[in-house]
Amino acid sequence: MNEKSKILIVEDSKTQAIVLQGLLVENGYDVSVAFGGLEAKAYLENFLPDIIITDIVMPDINGYELCRIIRDNERTKNIPIMLLTSLASPDDIIEGLKSGADNFITKPFDKAGLLARISYILLNKQLREAQPSSLGLNLYFAGHQHLINAERAQILDLFFSSYDAAIQKHRQLEATVRELSETQEFLYDARKEAESAVQEAEQAKEARGLFLANITHDLRSPLSAIIGIADLLSETPLQAEQKEYATIIKNAGESLLAQINNILDFSKIDAGMLELESIDFDLYEQVNIASSIFIKEVSDKNIQLEINIAPEVPQFLIGDESKLRQIFINLLSNAVKYTAKGGVTFNISCIDCTNGETAKLRFEVVDTGIGITEDRQQTLFQAFVQGHKSASRIYGGTGLGLAIVKQLVTRMGGTITLTSEPGLGSTFAFEIEFPVSNEEATRNAKMQKENGIMQTQRILLLPEKEKSDLTKDTKKILVVEDSKVYQRLEREMLASWGFTFEMAENGQEACRIFRERGNEFSLVLMDCQMPVMDGFQATAGIREIEKSQNTAKPVPVIALTAGNNQTDMTLYLNAGMNDCLEKPLKKKQLEECLARWL
To answer: pTM for the full model?
Structure first.
């Protein structure tokens, strides 16, 4: 009989619908699927199944409403309907009766029980159609009156279903008790399973890190190319209007790139992948770098940017300079963005700097901008929240900047506060305690970091010489890059300085070229992420080729990366790379790098 029986599944979850469909098809039923109540309603206008299995909770038409629609239609009123639900309370059973449902199965459903229930319904369908027995029943329950118009058989079916569900839940409870008993008897195995779960969690974290690294590259690469080409285009002879268009493209690309970086930074923080450095750094330098970014925007808006650092604030500290600079940039960016008149003031003062070993500092970014209402202040440091409902439309942004600031300040052991009044401006203030350093230690740390990027003990450095005009020395460069756009960008930059070059689209091709005529090249520009063989593997391959050929002066390899995390240079150094440039590739940065190595 089931070979001819047609079943319609109504389920908005595609995963659950596919599982249920596979089970029924495997047992010989002809199964159709509707992913929602509206789709089921359209299906029933043309086809009549033998039974309908429908979920209750759906976004368009829920299961109860669908039951009523089916019962009110002369063509479909006699089709048996099985609800897919937990029916956790008597209210659910009564609602099922009132809507005209015949039966139900609980989630997660028992396969054997489901097949037996369907077989029962189909066997009794013809009998129920031949012997209808309507019943009008007034029922008071939980303070409400309910009128139920249903066949006696339907009521019995539904209540028997609830009884079956209770039995099934009871069996599940018994199984759970048995499992708990077994767990108590085998604590050693449980501990092993826990250790395995921790290991799986670590693997999942690594996988998430790999995903973020890949998505960083995939999102930043095309944007970096757009920014680079626009920058290159702006240096060519252009009409005023064309130059304006190129500037617009570049500015829009940089704005979008900043938003993508915020999203990726927040994802890394949210995934617990944030690692803080502890190095000697110059606080004044970081303030200068962060504030200089906004000089042009402040000038264009005709507002003031004032920086006040109290005399007792130590200049040299120990901590994570890049993360602190990111906090400065995010707060200043918000302040400048939302200030149309007046200005922005950046104050740094000492709360406690008496012992000479540590300094507890207070940082304040004060603006005279639009201000923030009290109700919005409560949620402002949450992800994807902005100070005004219309802020994203008027000012742009993702609403992640302050969430990132909050996370970074907290991880550094500090606290952040906000005071604001609509129309008068806002003050963001945070306090962090730093160990105090000195000028010599900071200078040494800076030199060590720069050398760490540009040097590695496993290769011999080229002898130093005076920086020369790049156009006077014609040298050949091997460019290893899979992106056609970036190939064009790098080719144009190198050609403008008089270099000759050869292109390789992946690491394997680069190794082949280098094995055949590596002595022709003075330098290699190596993209890090490529198909077939990535930049790290290719660089290691080049070093092996040089070793096998007894090369006296190994060629400098410059890594090009679309990632935005260069704090850990171990990966580059271990692969044998000498230097690293981040995309979007700036012409000035590339020129300085080539001058340094050539």
So the answer is: 0.45
